[in-house]
Amino acid sequence: MVVADSYPRKVLPTMSRLDGATFLRLRDLKKLSEERRDNGLRKTDENDVKVLREMFYKAPGLFQPLYTSPVELEVRALTELWVELAGIKRVAKHTRTTTDDPLVVETHRMRQRYTERLATRIHERAMELPLYRMVVERLGLKGPSLAYIVSHDSIVFKTLSRTGLETRYELFRRP
Prior knowledge:
The chain is 62% helix and 6% strand. Helix 4 (70-98) packs across helix 7 (144-152). The chain contains eight helices and three strands. The protein has two domains: 2-67, no CATH class; 70-169, no CATH class.
């Protein structure tokens, strides 16, 4: 098992081919610096590896699986882009409503088109993930939000019902 704080994305597809390797990510990076400080260690790569190993054996819940396949890695990257575009949505809409410039309107529409195309691509790629496909079939939920949850925090599906997921992550359409 490999306990990792983070790896460059270019290296991850190569590393995913390692048989029997599980890649984990520390959920809260502040925990690493706190643990290092509590043990009186300086910040070095060697000390970080030792502290991460100890932390994993003491509290494995502090870590989450980074990914298990190249498809999941791709879905993860696409959903992170989708989240960024969703953040830009509010600014673009506000600017469109307060400005009469045709370029602003065109930019807003272009962003909408790309976001919709990205959502379609995310759904297509995420359907290759067993957990996403299962949730789509059993609960009838789908979309980039669900793909983001599956690729970043898949543990919640073991404990929540459809209503719980809809409420917690606001996966329902607003009228």
